[in-house]
Design brief:
Elements lengths: L2 H13 L5 E4 L2 E4 H16 L5 H8 L17 H26 L3 H12 L8 H26 L2 H14 L2 H7 L6 H12 L1
Antiparallel strand pairs: 1-2
Length: about 200
């Protein structure tokens, strides 16, 4: 195996440790491994010739995320943002270590880590924007209905949808409009985009 294949295998092995399972057409699979495969699938749609470093960052987006549950931080807006920032730093450090151990240079590993942290999103880095688009697409496609049910607040959900839409590029939005959503999700998206 080359260094990319080695790193990818190590990332997937980490995802496979997730004790949470989700049901797929081919049977149960650890949730984060399922999520990582969804991320890769949307990356292939948006940017089929993505660099190895972007592909690794996409695959490592939620690396060992289940180990730091949301309720380990206060149930406040500041708590949420602290949790997200802490996760990004932790996931970036983990994937950088995997990349170096797999044969990538420290500079290459640092680039993967920066992408996972979304460090250059506001500076217009196209790879970071692609990662953001992919994460938003997976949220809409795979997580929306459960999130909406758990949240139980239509006004907040519409606000989240507006913020999600605002994070996406035009290319990402085009792909989002192709997603087959549940009837309720379609209704809420309609309110978010037209309200």
């Amino acid at each position: 195996m080359n260094k990319y294949e080695t790193a990818l295998q190590r990332i997937d092995a980490a995802h496979a440790d997730d004790p949470r399972q989700t049901q797929t057409a081919s049977g149960p699979i650890p949730y984060e491994l399922h999520y990582a495969h969804k991320m890769t699938s949307y990356l292939t749609t948006l940017q089929p010739h993505a660099t190895e470093l972007l592909r690794l960052a996409i695959r490592a987006q939620h690396l060992r995320r289940w180990e730091v549950p949301r309720d380990s931080y206060p149930a406040t807006k500041i708590g949420y943002h602290s949790w997200r920032a802490g996760l990004q730093r932790r996931q970036a450090a983990l994937v950088e270590e995997i990349c170096v151990e797999s044969g990538f240079s420290t500079e290459e590993a640092a680039r993967v880590g920066a992408l996972v942290r979304k460090a250059d999103l506001k500076q217009g880095d196209p790879d970071t924007q692609t990662l953001e688009d992919v994460a938003c697409l997976v949220f809409l496609d795979d997580q929306f209905d459960k999130f909406e049910t758990d949240l139980g607040d239509e006004a907040k959900m519409v606000d989240i949808l507006r913020k999600t839409w605002g994070k996406m590029s035009e290319r990402g939005r085009e792909e989002a409009l192709k997603i087959k959503l549940s009837e309720n999700a379609q209704r809420l998206v309609g309110i978010a985009l037209n309200g």
